[in-house]
Design goal:
This protein has no helices and twelve strands. By secondary structure, the chain is mostly beta strands. The protein has a single domain (4-123), classed as Sandwich (Jelly Rolls), CATH 2.60.120.10. Strands 1-9-6-11-4 form a five-stranded antiparallel β-sheet, with no helix packed on it. A five-stranded antiparallel β-sheet has the order 8-7-10-5-12, with no helix packed on it. Strand 2 (9-13) and strand 3 form a beta hairpin. The two termini are 22 Å apart.
Amino acid sequence: MKPFLHEGSLFQDHRGSLRYNNDFDASQIKRIYTIENQSTENIRAWQGHKIEQRWFSAINGSFLIKVIEPDHWENPSGTNASFEFVLEKKTLDFLHVPSGFLTGIKALEENSQLLVMADYALGEIKDEYKFPLEVFEF
């Protein structure tokens, strides 16, 4: 399975706007949190999971998210192909990052907020892998 973008929609009329994603199935979600980078210069990379899945949605501003499938979880070569996604607040898009991938996250605008959802509760399993930013190209 590869990363997949569930595209949302926007409805606007004289009352205001409504962002929605009627096709997104949230039945696997057990945990929700938000990320706010202190500046657009910060990059949160590289973190991932062999077992857990994540879903991301920009609730304010916009983000560049790079997704990499490492060739080795203990000592990756750093030459892996990456997927690149831009999430913006204008529609309620959800980026699904399945198990087996690492992410790098960069806010593209000040005060951007990223909603993150996971399919395991905090502490339910030990499945967190982190690598220095320099291991992969961002």
